[in-house]
Structure formats: structure tokens, C-alpha cells
Write a structure and sequence with these properties.
Dipeptide-binding Protein, domain 3, alpha+beta, globular, TAT_signal_bac_arc, 26 strands, seven-stranded mixed β-sheet, D-Maltodextrin-Binding Protein, domain 2, 22% helix, disordered N terminus
């Protein structure tokens, strides 16, 4: 599981031809997907008009289109926008309360040592080509993901999947890792007999929908699987169009889509027949704070990166920064009120810790800096032992909201004598500084895996470069629990156990800012089923339960 930053900007750039299309361009794009419309196909097909009452047209951002197609062994479902794969079934899934429920599995269990997970499967499931789905297909999918260089999920803890019979599969782990269940909840099962080159363009699955058509760079059309083993989808046809933001707004204005993503900068607009809807998220914005002094290097994938920062390596500075952020002001000034304060990567999740919460207190921030010897200079910027309290805050230059957040933070940090300069750049530029300068990231997932990735000593998201054996032990212990509920205490102890933790009262490795609401313009009459909290990134998570949507 990776965060959106890894590949999103490249996709947006590559598909930028849609940008600025305007209403006429949006209408032209959609003309090929109207069903039951009037002559010329100009009538909105998802508006509940005759012949189209079970179709919906969804406008997603251009970066949501899966570059390799609808292939779970690359990025579909388990990729940067974690979501249910729709075309393929999964062993288990999660409901709107994020509790695990069975899909292909009828039951599952874990051995006492935490190293073997056993799943019993339904015996009435077939792929859309008529072939039965068996445990061999599950084992093939898992083993192929383990061996794949393109799979974007994390199954490194699994040594092998074994089909014990047609309806029983075992997963053999190399270490206890109960968070595996969250990955299995979005890993679509592919057919062993029909998987190969080109699968992503013409996928065969056993899920709620089939891929009817894919026009690269434009749209994907899904139709209900008539042989689906579960409840028949209420929404029989789903058209997803991939658009830049201005084109999506133009499509709303022209009445050509039924629901379209938007951002807070457009929240004050209104369109006849549409309403603005907001869905809760765990889409967090925060800045990483390097904990090591400047001069080091960190190797990753054969590349060496500069590591360390002489300002943020001071614990007092990191703690002061967390107290200096006026989160409410960021939400009001940048997000137009569509968000809430963020204190961690997993606020309000069962595994989140109250010890992550910190209130605005610039007086306390100033005292921390004073006591640590950071004295105010004639230019209003603090310094200590010849080191000026100055650093860059890097952000993605193609994200206007992040630019505004970085500017807001710069102004706020100046009030305590810290010179934080906003620096926009491409992700390639940002990655070259990821271990030496604060970076404004977007994170958030419906699982605790990111807590591990960001805070474990060898975690792939440990941009703060903080290593602590006590924190690692709590995180490891969390993963050994056979019952997910029993793991929550250990995730919380990793944040703060009274002596150690990554919370502000501990190592203060991150300064979290806001959770960003996901906003959409939705056509009146479209009933969107109750949503799970959306993970980071507008995208496919919206349509996790599109089969339960309907027109009123």
C-alpha cells in the first residue's frame, strides 16, 4: 500500500489533454456513453430518465485511471487509491464501520503462532467466462502478487499461499502480521487459467461488475455481472469518466455527469439540479520532520539521499512546531471549512491515540524554543549556535491547496521566530529532499498499515528517520495479535507509552494539520449509499458500494 504521491503527478500530466475542455468538450467525451438518451445522445443518461434509471455517470480525476488497467496484480484495488476492485471478488471486505465481513471466504482463522491463516471458501462462485473459482485461483493470485515487481500492495510477510482443497486455502507467513487482512480486503482474485499479458485491458473476474468498455484516457464503463453470487447490483451500469477538475466542473454545468469530484476552492459554486456533498475521510495533511542532524545519507533502492536537518533535529523545535499550528485557521482559510483538525495519520480510527492531540499554544512553543537556546535575532528569526531556524517546506507544485497550506504554515511559524519557506516542485524534486527537509504530504488509509510504515525504524515511509526500539516493539506486538481488536492498544502505545512514542509529547516526528473532506457535486435524486471513511485521494473509494446506489 502506498500513498498517492508516488505516481499520481505523472498520471495527471500524461492525461492533461482533457484540461480546459470546457462544456462542449465534456459533452463530446460523454456522447458515447449515453443510454436511453434522446436523439444525438445529449440527454444526461444517469438522471433517472427513461431507460437510464439504473445508470450513473461518475467524474473522477484523471489520475484515478489505472495506467496498467484493471489488474489487481499491478495497482487495481491495492494501489495508491486503496478501494474495492468491483470487477474481482476478494476473500473478505469491510463494511461502512470498517469491520471485516466475508466475501469469497465463509470463515477464516489464524494459527496460535500467527504464521498460518486458513480461509474456507464458497463453492458457488464462477468467473465471468463460466469457469469455477477455487482455492487454486486464490493461491495463484497471492503467489503472483508476492513474486510480482509491479504489485503495489505489500505481501512481503507472506511466504506462500497453498490450495489445500478446492475450497480451502492457507497463507503461510514469515512473521505474524494481522494487518494482512486489510490488504486481502482489497486484493481482487484473478483466474489462474485466464491471467496473462493484457489482462488489465480485458479483465475476467467474479465480482459485482464486468468491464464493458475502456477508452484509455477518457472513460471506463462497467455493467452488472448477471451471474454474481451476491445481491444483484441496484445500479446496473456505471460510467466513470476521467477528467481534470475544470473539465469535471464544466460537465456538471452542462448536466452531463451525475456526480463529480471537486475541491474546497469551488465549494461556493452552485449548479442547477446539483448539490454539494461532503464525505468524511482519513485523508490527512502533515509535514514530516527530519530528526537527524544534517550531513548523513540514507540509501533506498540503490539511490543515496541526503539525510538530516540541523533545525528540525532539535526535539524542542519539532515539539514547538506542533504547538504553533492553528489548524482551525488552515481549515477556514484554505479549505473553506471543509475539513477538521488532524493530529495523526489515523484520527478517529479504532487504533488512533488521544496522545497525538495537541492544541494551539504559541506561548508554550516560544518557551520551548527559548529554553532550548533558540534566541530571536534582529530579523525576527531565531538562531542557536550559529544555526538559523530556517528550513524549506516542500509541496507538490500542481496542488493549489497544498501550496496554500504551505504558505499558511509559513506565516504561522514566523510568529514563533521560525523561517519556513514554501518550496513547490515535482515529486521527483521533492523525493530528492524527503529526508532532509519537511515535506507536506497527503496520507490516510482505512487500516493501521500506514502507522507502521511512517513510524517503524525501517518503515518505507519513515521520512523523519527516527529509530526507537520501544516503538518498534509496540508496533510488532500490534501485528502479532490474532484478534484485530486486541491490537489497538499496542498501536496506541507506539504513539506514547509514558516514556517513548512518536506523539508530540514524545519524539514529535510529524506535525499534522488537517483532514481534508472529499467534496462532490451530486445530481439531485441520486442516492449514494452510506460511505466508509475515504482514504487519501479522491478516487475509486467513492464507488466501493456503487452497487447499492439508486435513483429516488
Amino acid at each position: 500500500m502506498i500513498n498517492e504521491e508516488a505516481h499520481g503527478s505523472g498520471m495527471l500530466s500524461r492525461r492533461g489533454f482533457i484540461a480546459g475542455a470546457g462544456a462542449a468538450g465534456a459533452a463530446a467525451l460523454l456522447s458515447g456513453c449515453t443510454a436511453g438518451a434522446g436523439e444525438g445522445g445529449s440527454t444526461p443518461s444517469g438522471s433517472g430518465s427513461e431507460g437510464a434509471s439504473s445508470q450513473v455517470i461518475v467524474a473522477m480525476n484523471a489520475g484515478s485511471e489505472p495506467a496498467a488497467g484493471f489488474d489487481p496484480l499491478v495497482a487495481w484495488g491495492c494501489g495508491e487509491h486503496v478501494h474495492e476492485p468491483l470487477i474481482q471478488s476478494t476473500l473478505i471486505t469491510t463494511d461502512e464501520n470498517l469491520e471485516f465481513v466475508n466475501d469469497l471466504a465463509t470463515s477464516y482463522s489464524c494459527s496460535d503462532d500467527g504464521l498460518t491463516w486458513t480461509f474456507e471458501l464458497r463453492d458457488d462462485v464462477a468467473f465471468t467466462d463460466g469457469e469455477p473459482l477455487t482455492a487454486s485461483d486464490v493461491a495463484f493470485t497471492v503467489n503472483s502478487a508476492i513474486q510480482s515487481d509491479t504489485f503495489e500492495g505489500d505481501l512481503s510477510m507472506v511466504d506462500e499461499a497453498v490450495a489445500v482443497s478446492d475450497t480451502v486455502v492457507e497463507l503461510h507467513l514469515n512473521k505474524p502480521y494481522n494487518a494482512l487482512l486489510y490488504t486481502l480486503a482489497v486484493l481482487g482474485i484473478v483466474p489462474e487459467h485466464a491471467y496473462g499479458d493484457g489482462y488489465g485491458s480485458a479483465p475476467i473476474g467474479s465480482g459485482r461488475y464486468m468491464l464493458e468498455r475502456w477508452d484509455r484516457g477518457q472513460q471506463a464503463i462497467f455493467s452488472a455481472n448477471p451471474d454474481y453470487y451476491g445481491e444483484p447490483p441496484l445500479m446496473e451500469r456505471v460510467v466513470v469518466v476521467f477528467m481534470e477538475e475544470d473539465a469535471a466542473l464544466a460537465a456538471v454545468q452542462a448536466g452531463e455527469v451525475d456526480i463529480a469530484y471537486t475541491y474546497a476552492t469551488h465549494a461556493q459554486q452552485s449548479f442547477d439540479g446539483y448539490e454539494l456533498v461532503s464525505y468524511a475521510t482519513v485523508d490527512s495533511r502533515g509535514i514530516s520532520l527530519p530528526t537527524q542532524p544534517a550531513g548523513g545519507t540514507k540509501s533506498e533502492g540503490g539511490t543515496s539521499y541526503a539525510m538530516g536537518n540541523d533545525v528540525t533535529s532539535d526535539l524542542s523545535v519539532r515539539r514547538a512546531l506542533t504547538y504553533a499550528i492553528d489548524r482551525d485557521a488552515v481549515i477556514e482559510n484554505v479549505l473553506s471549512g471543509y475539513g477538521k483538525p488532524a493530529y495523526s495519520v489515523s484520527d478517529d480510527m479504532p487504533w488512533s491515540s488521544d496522545d497525538m492531540k495537541v492544541e494551539l499554544d504559541r506561548d508554550l512553543a516560544a518557551r520551548l524554543l527559548d529554553d532550548a537556546g533558540w534566541a530571536i535575532g534582529s530579523d525576527g528569526v531565531r538562531a542557536k549556535d550559529g544555526v538559523r531556524a530556517a528550513f524549506d517546506i516542500w509541496y507538490s507544485s500542481d496542488d493549489s491547496a497544498r501550496q496554500a497550506i504551505a504558505n499558511e504554515l509559513s506565516n504561522q511559524f514566523a510568529k514563533i521566530g521560525i523561517d519556513a519557506s514554501p518550496r513547490g516542485g515535482s515529486w521527483d524534486e521533492i523525493y530528492s529532499h524527503q529526508y532532509e527537509q519537511p515535506v507536506l504530504w497527503g496520507w490516510g488509509s482505512n487500516s493501521p498499515i500506514e502507522v507502521y510504515a511512517l513510524n517503524y525504524s525501517t518503515g518505507w515511509g519513515n521520512y523523519a528517520c527516527y529509530e526507537n526500539a520501544a516503538i518498534d516493539a509496540h508496533l510488532d506486538e500490534a501485528l502479532t495479535q490474532q484478534n484485530i481488536e486486541d491490537s489497538y492498544t499496542y498501536w496506541q502505545l507506539a504513539a506514547w507509552d509514558g516514556e517513548n512514542g512518536f506523539a508530540p509529547k514524545g519524539a514529535a516526528t510529524w506535525a499534522w494539520i488537517a483532514n481534508v473532506d472529499h467534496l462532490y457535486f451530486k445530481r439531485e435524486g441520486l442516492v449514494v449509499a452510506d460511505q466508509k471513511p475515504h482514504p487519501h485521494g479522491h478516487g475509486w473509494s467513492l464507488v466501493n458500494n456503487v452497487d447499492r446506489w439508486e435513483w429516488s
